[in-house]
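Structure ticket #2291
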Amino acid sequence: MFALRNTLRDTLGNSWSVVTGLLMAGSLAVVSPTLAHAQEAASAPERVSARNAEGVRSALASAGYKPDLERDPENGEISIGIELENWIAAVLFRDCDATLPDYCDTLILSIGFDRNTPISDAAVTAANTNYRYVSVFRTASGDPYMQWALLTLDRGLDTRVFLEAVKRFEEVADAFSTVAFDDDSETPSTLSGTLFVANKRGNTLSKIDLASGEPVLELPSCTNPHELATSPDGRHVALACYGGTTVDIFSADKLEKVASIELGEKAAPHGIVWHRYGDIYVTAEGRQSIFHIAAPLSDAPVLEEFATGQEGSHMLAVAPEANTAWTTDLGSRTVTRVDLVTRREPLSVAVGEEPEGIALAPDGETLWVSARRSNQAFALDPETMEVRKTLGTGQFPLRLAIRPQGDVAVTSNLIDGSLTVIDLAKAEVVRTIAVSSPEQAEQRFQVTILWSDDGERVYVAETASNTVAEIEFSSGEVLRRLPTGEGGDGLAILP
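Resolution: structure written out below.
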């Protein structure tokens, strides 16, 4: 069920470049004493120190732990892999002198557990409360790790004390293992369907099977695709080619391009909606306008352009009856209402600092906007554009999406890696969901958000780490991180 890693390396950054320990298919018995073992025991030092790696290795060998001393060829860091009875663990050498990499002050006992699904924050918190000495944390991929730091300095620790610490660490690892693998399903998601991702740095379009969590296809698309939308019949996917001037349409099954609709010079299309009536609406940021594309799959699509008169018309919402559209205009720091029927003068109002996220409530009575620079969400009257309510959110709320059931909205907060949950009936913030920590936020760069049709999951594109986080809304737990192409951004789901 769980495979033993072939290396003692993991991607925890430079200061934690070597961590080990995976559940093995069987148990490893500590070897019985042999002549070589007896010789090791006889030569074991009286004290061990992080400044003497060979002495640490010898002490571990004297207790039968089969130590394997390694040095990282890139940074010179030392680690010793050891065989516990049921696990593979490591001794790490830390707090080392910058000019003398072997002159270290701390030994860290380290062990990790390779789960199929991310361990919950609650389980990590409980482990840190229940187990003395050790520190439990989870990696960016959701795997739990347990470590115990032993300060040795120059004088070192009595070898018997050190080996007793290793023994206690092993006992705690055995106890924690039941928590580490609790409720770890081989098939974490029961959802069916396909997730489509626009990969803006890779210039590709990809599809991911939600049942398995595995990518099934990725093909070239267009230059810098940002947002995407799916056709009402579920047979096609449209991309706003932000790095160019077209809306490109692909078949949902094979991702073959079936149409490319030219919008004109400097278009830079971004926000896109494939309306239930079958037409496409898309912002043309470089032209300060919205395009209405009628019959987009026909041999002769009909284009109609509506000026917003604002700089950087970026994201887009369209009324259920397709009579009105609204844009967030980053450059002008406004929100604009555009009448798609009468062509009356657009109405633009200033809303916060750099409004970007936008969504119309299902009942059509409220327009919700998030302003990324002011860390706020706003409830607007969609006709008069009057701001009815202002709420504080997490930091830099790039996107706002309303649950299909119409009860809540979430903002995607790039800088602190969270989701702010807003009760729409009360117009109040009711929860915050941590998708990643503020420290991890820069490495993940959280952007687009998407609800599953049943409202049970939220999908969050993490552009820098090429992942999409799948969050269970009820618990706020990150269930998995799905691999995307390079720079995954725009999202859509088809059954």
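Closing remark: The longest strand covers residues 88-96.
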